[in-house]
Design brief:
358 residues; alpha+beta; Nucleotidyltransferase, domain 5; 6-stranded mixed sheet; 18 strands; 37% helix
């Protein structure tokens, strides 16, 4: 069984003290990184003025460190809440990057995670006090995968495993990826990585600017308006459904279809009877409908349950698999791993998902 939690990958630096509220998922009011305090996740959305996110951050960026530490803190909370004894807990972690940035970031991500992390947070208590807390997160093993490989693991080895040949399409905020998956592995010839849903959000923003003034919104705030298909202006809800449909149609025609044409040919469709869509973009039903209209006659289209969590679930499964099969593992960088809890962390551009294999 895999237990998964997710939080928005947004943050905002702050000098304020928060005595009455904590993030409902992460359980702290703010986190300290490099001597600065930050709001993260829902706390940043609820309390922040201009919460923002970074697209495809690398492990050398402060933004990556901030979100990664929050994810490790959440993993520790998940494990601690389920612990039945006082034994020391260590973590076997798998994370990943889009295929386009995987080779660039793999080694630096291993270096970042392989040393034990000391995380400083602040938590508001019921008496109106804000108390600092430090936690040591001991890491016994770290693996770094291309994100699409993690998705393949979740689809083939998750709760409802899929067999045979199929096409995976990952609709992320920063990156869209696709590949043909076979029982023997992924076909590298068919693997593509291109613009994500942010492309459609940018078009959506341009369309709104022609007819409405929505204020000075950050990229994540515009993404929220895009997801909801409307917002309140002067205490009245304004519907932007048509602008959203137009943006998704242009995104599908200008970005996704050309990638399919270049990398996945008729011979691939001949051996693949299924297409599985994963990633948070799969919640846009209008976009899924475009896939059905274009490819529905040659293969069945399905959406992975809780699609935004697919990669992190696959990462957690891979953590267990890599510990059981140390030899010949090109992705793993292993340390003393006895008694490790297996964790998958997907640091996404829109949401970060943390999965723990129980």
């Amino acid at each position: 069984m895999v237990k998964t939690f997710s939080f928005p990958s947004v943050y905002e630096s702050t000098i304020r003290e928060y005595y009455t509220s904590n993030d409902p998922i992460l359980g702290f009011s703010k986190i300290k990184v490099d001597d600065s305090d930050y709001l993260v996740g829902l706390q940043a959305l609820n309390e922040g003025v201009s919460p923002h996110k970074s697209l495809n951050a690398s492990p050398s960026d402060r933004e990556y460190k901030l979100i990664a530490h929050s994810a490790l803190f959440l993993a520790n909370n998940i494990v601690s809440n389920g612990a039945k004894n006082g034994n020391s807990i260590k973590y076997s972690i798998t994370t990943g990057f889009p295929y386009a940035t995987y080779q660039l970031n793999k080694d630096s991500a291993i270096d970042f995670f392989k040393s034990d992390c000391v995380i400083t947070t602040y938590k508001a208590d019921e008496n109106g006090n804000q108390n600092p807390d430090q936690k040591l997160i001991p890491i016994c093993n770290i693996n770094v995968l291309p994100e699409i490989v993690g998705c393949d693991y979740a689809i083939r080895k998750g709760d409802n495993p899929t067999d045979g040949n199929f096409i995976i399409v990952s609709l992320g905020y920063g990156t869209c990826e696709g590949v043909v998956s076979t029982p023997n592995g992924l076909l590298n010839r068919t693997l593509f990585s291109t613009h994500g849903i942010s492309y459609a959000v940018d078009i959506f923003t341009e369309e709104l600017s022609k007819s409405s003034f929505v204020g000075l919104k950050t990229g994540h705030q515009m993404d929220q308006i895009f997801t909801k298909g409307g917002m309140y202006i002067d205490r009245k809800r304004k519907d932007f459904t048509e602008e959203k449909k137009k943006a998704l149609r242009l995104y599908f025609n200008n970005v996704i279809l050309p990638a399919f044409t270049k990398y996945i040919n008729d011979a691939d469709f001949e051996v693949c009877s299924k297409m599985v869509i994963v990633g948070g973009g799969a919640y846009n039903q209008d976009l899924v409908n475009l896939f059905n209209d274009e490819f529905g006659e040659v293969c069945s289209i399905s959406v992975f349950p809780t699609p935004e969590r697919c990669a992190s679930i696959g990462y957690a499964i891979y953590s267990k698999h890599s510990d059981n099969n140390k030899s010949g593992n090109e992705f793993a960088s292993s340390y003393d791993d006895e008694g490790c809890v297996h964790v998958g962390i997907d640091i996404g551009n829109a949401n970060t998902c943390v999965s723990v294999l129980e």
